[in-house]
Amino acid sequence: MTLTGDPATGARPQPPPGAPPRARTRRRRSQLPLALFAADAACVLAVLLATAAQRAPSVAVLGVSVLLAHCWLGLYRPRLELSVLDDLPLLLGGALAGVGVGAIAEAAFGAGRVDRCAVAAVAVQTCLVVLARTGTHVLRRRARRSGRVAHRTLVVGCGGLGAQLVELLQRGEHGLLPVGFVDDDPRLPPELRPVPVLGELAELPELVRRHRAAVVLIGYSNVPEAVVVDVLRGCHGLDVEIFAVPRFWQVSSSHRLVESLRGVPLVQLRRPAFRAASWPLKRVLDVTASAAGLVVLSPLLLLCAAAVRADLGPGVLFRQERVGLGGRRFEVLKLRTVPHRPAGDGVPRWGVGEEELSALGRWMRRLSLDELPQLWNVLRGDMSLVGPRPERPYFVERFEREHEDYLWRHRVPCGITGWAQVHGLRGDTSIDERARFDNHYVENWSLWLDVKILLRTVVQVLAAAGR
Questions:
Q1: Is-contact 242 259, C-beta < 8 A?
Q2: DSSP classification of residue 111
Q3: Range(s) of the domain holding residue 191
Q4: Among 124, 413, 429, 462, which has the highest number of CB atoms less than 10 A from its own CB?
Q5: CB-CB contact of 349 with 320 (8 Å)
Q6: What is the average per-residue pLDDT within 50-67?
Q7: How far apart are CA 299 and CA 294, in angstroms?
């Protein structure tokens, strides 16, 4: 089902391997988030120990609430620039959010209000956090300058901007060690290159593995932007941070730029879904919801099965091979809705016409009741509740040839429902649109997005919008 080729020549690269894409490139992770969290937790503990015993519960609730707010605000993420002044607005916002959450918790489970002593404790805690974070940043900067913290870095684009990035990294202020350029057509002559050219852009995933790179910086190169996107998607299974210099950065005034190399802005690309802290919760949601669904909906499932048996005869379940995560094949289960299938010429058919369905089958499809057995596929781990809809191998190979972004749908588990389906892309609809919606889901996944899709699916089922 996969396509091979060289992205630098316009051919499509291979999709991710079939195994779940867990950190295939082993590297030393940044210890900064752990150090910052430990410093903040020590401040919370210090304030708690200095608090009178009768007020300790309220102070503990507020302290934990502030730590959670810091996590939510991204104060424990790795970063290139270390500045307490940059963190200060978020630290103050975290303190206010912590007090608010603590007040709600106290109202629900405690004495009903947060006293002044507890608020004062949060203020003292915030001051201690600022001091502790200042000390942590000072120690971290010293470790970077001494070379004890140096993450191996590849720079895409061997031109003027690439050379500037390497020069800035070699100062040692950001904890990144440039090991080489990646470019198809280097514009700098060999004598002016501060580091060697290691290979072409199409080789980027392999170069990351070979050189144990922890960071990739994307500058400018002569490779078409669409090809660069494909190559970056091919890095989906790698444990690597990717930053890109935005176009027209010299005149850009965007405040969303998350990092800076001494005046050169960098945008950190979103991490793959499987590296998100909440990704394991997706499987927890799948197992919990599918098991509960099978139990709660078992009377309805048995009733539908009995109706299919009475209407269409033996063979209640319909089994069909589909393609899931990374090209894996599995057998999907559905309730049968077609009385008789014509033999045909051996070529799989794209869909079933309304005239071929029984009256019961049309009704079941409109309510999506024929999909209920797929809860067993979810429980087994073949599928997820939410994800790109799985397709048959024949059509996967065909669509990969005809639609350039189709193969990238298989970077996450397939699902019973998906982002494309809740936007009306079911049945005989545009494959290009489906691929665009599915890839948007893959690249912007969050647990809340899954919940939102499930809620919209319920509304569509109740409105009999299935086809």
A1: no
A2: S
A3: 7-28+150-269
A4: 413
A5: no
A6: 78
A7: 9
